[in-house]
Design a protein that fits this description.
This protein has helices spanning 2-17, 21-40, 44-67, 147-154, 178-182; strands spanning 83-84, 87-88, 90-91, 104-111, 117-124, 131-136, 164-169, 172-177. With 187 residues, it is α/β, with parallel strands linked by helices. It has one domain. This is ARH40 factor. It comes from Casuarius casuarius (Southern cassowary).
């Protein structure tokens, strides 16, 4: 009974964040399963309390603040900016097997301690060797999906400016120009 209610809560949470859930379910459930196994040693309840609930708050804040400037418009992709139909924009798990190219980056919500989550941008380090993780302060959540956000990050990245955001669907990865993500389509 408890595992059924845990599963139901997880699915309800993810379906509210990443609609249409029938298109994103395989990706986000697999990513969450990865988080449960790697960070919480298979303890789904602890993952829910320490990661998914705070991640939900952070993702809802990003969605609410990003969409506020489009009040009255109907998004063609109802999950924007967290996903674009089946393609997940803000990841729940690291993309370990993906080889980043110069200019590539992805957004991920990560645990930040007990019952805390934060948004990070992951990319190649400025020297092109290894991975860099850039924490995005909550005060910037409303302006992440803008040209100015990436321009601000690129001011310090002369050799490898960021330009392509990695989106995922299952095990497939799509390199997508940032301008294609930040400009939503409306009905």
């Amino acid at each position: 009974q408890d595992s059924k209610s845990l599963d139901a809560y997880i699915q309800n949470t993810l379906s509210a964040l990443y609609p249409p859930f029938e298109a994103t379910a395989a990706t986000v459930l697999w990513q969450l399963f990865n988080v449960v196994e790697k960070l919480y040693q298979g303890d789904g309840l602890r993952c829910l309390i320490d990661f998914l609930v705070p991640a939900k708050r952070a993702l809802q804040c990003i969605q609410r603040e990003t969409c506020a400037k489009y009040t009255g418009l109907i998004f063609y992709h109802e999950g924007w900016p967290l996903c674009i139909h089946e393609k997940v924009v803000i990841q729940l798990a690291s993309l370990h097997r993906v080889r980043l190219k110069p200019g590539d980056f992805y957004l991920q919500v990560v645990p930040a301690g007990k019952q805390l989550a934060k948004l990070v941008l992951k990319c190649l380090s400025r020297c092109g060797q290894g991975m860099e993780e850039v924490a995005i302060p909550e005060t910037m959540y409303g302006c992440i999906f803008t040209v100015a956000f990436l321009e601000k990050l690129n001011c310090e990245r002369e050799r490898f400016p960021l330009k392509s955001c990695l989106l995922t669907t299952g095990s497939a990865v799509y390199r997508t120009p940032w301008k294609n993500i930040i400009n939503p389509i409306f009905v």
